[in-house]
Amino acid sequence: MKQMTKWKPAWKKFWKDESGIGTLEIILIVAVLILIAFLFRGWIISWVNKLLGNANDRLNDSPTSPCTPSAHQKC
């Protein structure tokens, strides 16, 4: 019983200590974002592929071809 009363004040002090709470909040937010990304990874991957595919199709259908300017060629 004496051991319990010895630890009780230390436990209360630890429980009321708020140092590091900001870091903990950021870690929890990042963990939740990673969990959401993991749960919806299939949907996210298909959405990105569709988005990039549409952009690639639009570039292929453009009337002018892409050009990289150089000293010998003007675009």
Structure description:
There is one protein chain. By secondary structure, the protein is an all-alpha fold. It has one domain. The protein has three helices and no strands. It has helices spanning 2-16, 21-39, 41-60. It starts with a helix and ends in a 15-residue tail after the last helix. Residues 13-59 form the Putative Flagellin Flp1-like domain. Keywords: Membrane, Transmembrane, Transmembrane helix. InterPro entries: Flp1-like. The chain crosses the membrane at residues 21-44. This is Putative Flagellin Flp1-like domain-containing protein.
Strand content: under 5%
Portion in helices? over 70%
Helix/sheet category = mainly alpha
Mean pLDDT: 85
What's the number of domains?
A: 1
Number of helices, where a helix is a run of at least 4 consecutive DSSP H or I residues: 3
Instruction: Provide the succession of SSEs.
Output: HHH
Beta-strand segment tally: 0
Largest sheet: none
What's the alpha carbon Rg, rounded to whole Å? 28 Å
Distance between the termini: 86 Å
| Approximate shape | elongated
The parts where pLDDT drops under 50 for at least 5 residues are none
Transmembrane segments: 21-44
Keywords: Membrane, Transmembrane, Transmembrane helix
Protein name: Putative Flagellin Flp1-like domain-containing protein
InterPro entries: Flp1-like
